[in-house]
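Lab notebook, entry 212. We have the chain sequence and a SMILES string for zinc ion, and the next step in the workflow is to get a structural model of the bound complex before anyone spends time on docking refinements. Request logged below.

Task: model protein plus zinc ion, output structure tokens.
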Amino acid sequence: MSSRSINFTFHGIGPQERFLEPGEGTVWVSTERFRSVLDAVKGRSDVRITFDDGNRSDVEIALPALLERGMTATFFVVAGRLGSDAFLTAEDLRALAAAGMRIGSHGMHHRPWREADLQEEVVTAKAVLEDALGQPITEAACPFGSYDRRVLKALKRAGYARVYTSDRGSAAPGEWLQARTSITEAGDVRSLMDPSAPSLRRRAELAAKRWR
Ligand SMILES: [Zn+2]
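Result returned:
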């Protein structure tokens, strides 16, 4: 059993129901791609699945596919978008949690945290999501993979038990800061789980770089 784990990040899946942000198309994947990655990952206790941005596809496409395969995942939701068109509602959060999924914070307005008001992004967003979910929020994922010492300090002070970045590569399962790799439409996902295939892995990393 490996002492390192791999964290994968999905974003939107399937038909695009809104205008995407610049770069977001790079990480929006088809339903077929999503399902094939889940099948490749199934049974790998060293691979963890996460979802960013709180798109409606989290409940409409991801949740049933995860349940069919007996898998769980963590969903990082943008608090300020709750209930907006094409995004999750408070009720969706509770449905995800009731189905055994974890909910985390992806901030208030989907801004790079290095340049953001951290009281709003780190503290207020957590409270808004806790209110919607009716349970504590203990994990966060940095939008655009943006963080620095000030951001990490604010996250620690706000009481997050685990923070996910987009730094790619493997992570030590118990560590507070967890690197993740974004899944794109192309590329062999098995190579992303295999540290002995750096060239393929590097190519997928570069493709995912613009949207993290
Ligand atoms: Zn995001």
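Notes for the group: Helices lie at 31-41, 57-68, 90-98, 118-133, 149-157, 189-192, 198-208. Worth checking against the assay data. The chain has seven helices and nine strands.
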